[in-house]
Amino acid sequence: MNVEMIGNYMAPFAFDVDVATGIIKDYKNHVVRKASSMRGYYADAGALEALIAEGDPIHYEVFERTVPEVYGNLMVGISKLYPGVVGQECFMTKGHYHQVIQTGEVYLCLGGSGYLLMKTKEGDFSALPMERGKVVYVPPSWAHRSVNCGDDPLVSFFVYNAESGHNYGDIETEGFIKRVYKRAGAVVIE
Ligand code: F6R
Ligand code: ZN
Question: What's the CA gap between 70 and 5, in Å, rounded?
Fold first, then answer.
């Protein structure tokens, strides 16, 4: 990829985030995952198919300022997860381990409310609340998934090692131990 250089080094850069909408101006990479990208992830497959048939709404978007994916660089961006339910299960991201499993990540929630679910290969589980101003530190070895339990988009700024890579396959087969539902207006993790 082309990066701006000053002498022998990558040039420092700055960018703007529209905190209200969660959109990075001048993003370099944009990932859009619709309901149809989420087949196999929710407990109620029929409810997901109904949602897809009704218009296949966007589940989440990721905006990144990409940098070369090598040791030392940090990847930064915004994750914007829309509100909604599949059956009674709250909208969520696919979730992943990092391919380079000894790399962590930091999330700063800018708006909305929900959880960051985390799990390890050994079956350990953690669910930490996400709300505006909350920083969640994801240590190495923990898979992570965002869940939106509110009525507004759950917007988070994230930073991770640029060489981390993403391992989605293991979550597709393992699942995430617990799911988050809205039952009669109450959020339950079960
Ligand atoms: C990057 C990271 C986030 C997620 C984003 C979408 O390592 O954890 O940027 O990529 O929240 O979730 P996934 O990648 O699980 O679809
Ligand atoms: Zn990650």
Answer: 16
Question: Given ligand 1 and candidates 24, 79, 142, which is best to mutate, with the most ligand atoms within 8 Å of its CB?
Answer: 79
Q: What is the pTM of this model?
A: 0.97
Which two structure tokens, joined as six digits, stand for 93? 């991201």
Domain chopping of the chain, boundaries? 5-189
Q: CATH second-level architecture of 5-189?
A: Sandwich (2.60)
Ligand 2 mean position, distance from CA 136 (Å):
12
Does the C-beta of 160 come closer than 6 Å to ligand 1?
Answer: yes
CA–CA dist 176, 68 (Å, integer): 30
Q: Which helix (H) or strand (E) holds 50?
A: helix 45-53
The model's pLDDT over 149-183, given as tens digits with 9 standing for 90+, comes to 999 999 999 999 999 999 999 999 999 999 999 99
Tokens representing 179? 């799911």
Q: What is the dihedral of CA 34, 172, 158, 70, to 10 degrees?
A: -110
How many angstroms does the Cα of residue 98 sit away from the middle of ligand 1? 10
Closest CA relative to residue 153, chosen from 56, 81, 50? 81
Indicate which ligand has the atom closest to the C-alpha of 59.
1
pLDDT-wise least confident of 2-6, 69-73, 115-119: 2-6
Give me ligand 1 centre to Cα 184, in Å: 29
